[in-house]
Amino acid sequence: MVIIEDVENEEAWENSNPKNRRDDRQRPEDQVLMRALRDFNIPKIVTDDVPVFMGLIGDLFPALDVPRKRNPEFEAVIKRSALDLKLQPEDGFILKIVQLEELFAVRHSVFIIGFAGTGKSEVWKTLNKTYQNQKRKPHYNDLNPKAVTNDELFGIVNPSTREWKDGLFSILMRDQANLGGTGPKWIVLDGDIDPMWIESLNTVMDDNKVLTLASNERIALTKEMRLLFEIASLRTATPATVSRAGILYINPQDLGWTPFIQSWLGTRTNSSEVSMLNVLFDKYVPPLLDIFRTRLRSITPISDIARLQMTCYLLDSMLTPQNVPNDCPKDWYEIYFVFCIVWGFGSSLFQDQIIDWRNEFSKWFLNEYKAVKFPVSGTIFSFYIDHETKKFFPWTNLVPQFELDMDLPLQSNLVNTAETTRLRFFMDTLIEADHPLMLIGPSGSGKTILMNAKLSALPSDKYSVTNVPFNFYTTSEMLQRILEKPLEKKAGRNYGPIGNKRMIYFVDDMNMPEVDKYFTVQPHTLIRQFMDYHHWYDRQKMTLRDIHKCNIVACMNPSAGSFTIDPRLQRHFCSFAVNLEYKVLLYNTVLKTIWTYGCELWGNASKTNIEIIQRAQSTILRTITGAPWYPTDCAI
């Protein structure tokens, strides 16, 4: 059955282009069969299984090697399109785009599958740009099918009035079917596969190519239209669904991390700086990726691309003309680079009940790399860079003196430590650059207090802040109402915060909403749609709303709710673990202030009273140190 299907695919692909038929008219049948089996199965096979599959092909067709059919003119346009999008036209990337084009030639439904950050979106966006450069006038509409309900997706008949209300997918499909021209038209469904909605597309995905609605309307898929599904896995898809579509699997090794770094380096204007950074990335990144995959543990799963992305964000903020002038020594670059990559990779490391993973990483790093010298005391996370001297100094130097304000409630007093000071530094840096940020830590670690302290300190003439508290019952519709409330309509379909301000949404308890039986958290799909495409759909009119000048920061407890969130959403955030290692220092600071204040009130307190107070303080500290959790930390 598979062989018959592959031969049919090969036939269809050759028939789609007269030149293909002319070139292959004299080719022996065994070569046609061998190429069909190879070229239409390789795109959906994981890297580790490719040698096994090629061995099987070799057994079936011994001593036979047929080259791939290539179109140099088309590949040249792909390269130009990739450069237009500031991407790297590497051979592996071009191959994936060609494979997607070949699948579109024989299938009207295609799955692009891969882990977060493997380049799925860039593949189809580059193919779309290629069509533009070929003057084929392509058109696509994207939506996340899990960000809306099934009724909002396909439409519903009101049981009382028998009035029909159109759904988002049916509107998009009808509009594309009625759209003139012969250019490619795609509906991009970027979201988790769910039998509850994808089974409604069975007649669209099979040879019928027709969507039948509850209103009895039938919308036919035209020959230019395609369904493109961008997903992380097929774990909830049925065999019937999988058999109806072509599959393009993008392995993490297919593109790797190098293209991302090269694209970022393309944004730097100093050529000598680019060459130095290139050497530093090659020196530090491969060993770091290896140890984080094999030996270290983060507070929540973080993808390789997310770590590199955060490193580049920090480098953008550090490598300024003031910090690294054109005539500066080369070792200055390595000092800043080491600081940024340590935090870009190590910010999510935490201390569990057995191992302090930050300390483990610090010992490995100091043993592995000797070029940049850290002070002897402390770990590599204990120091910041002084911009004047280019030397490392402890974060404790920047900790302000704690003063207890007796006029405020106890929980409103923020106790600063080295931990809170360095977190505040990175929060200032990333929020100012408009990058998403997430604090992750157990209950009582002070995540919310730290975030609120930062957001309340933002200038009110430049920023607006909207709190978005999540709970188990939060839905995407409830979330969208909260997100839209502080926005105003600009020109056309554009929306943004009032005036010329920037909006920051603070999502607390990110992982608290319900996980459905198909492993999807509905509010997260809406957030990811915004972070990927910067728009969502009006739930009444089903029209697109482009959202501008908005950013999202969040807090999450990894030991509650769903524990983790979708890796495709997590990768957008710069994630920081908030550790509990300073709780004794926090309590000691507060208690010392309280005792001192009490003694001042008593004036002539006897030595006996002071000894009693000291014993009470010691007892309280021992109690809290041994407790598994406590109600507040930074917020006492």
From TrEMBL:
InterPro entries: AAA_6, DHC, Dynein_AAA1S, Dynein_AAA5_ext, P-loop_NTPase
Cellular component terms (Gene Ontology): dynein complex
Pfam families, A to Z: AAA_6, AAA_7, Dynein_AAA_lid
Biological process annotations from GO: microtubule-based movement
Annotated Dynein heavy chain AAA 5 extension domain residues: 278-397
Dynein heavy chain hydrolytic ATP-binding dynein motor region domain ranges (all copies): 19-121
Region: Disordered, residue numbers: 8-28
GO function term, MF aspect, one: dynein intermediate chain binding
Cited PANTHER family: DYNEIN HEAVY CHAIN, DYNEINS HEAVY CHAIN
Name used for this protein in its record: Dynein beta chain, ciliary-like
Native source organism of the sequence: Drosophila mauritiana
Encoding gene (name): LOC117149966
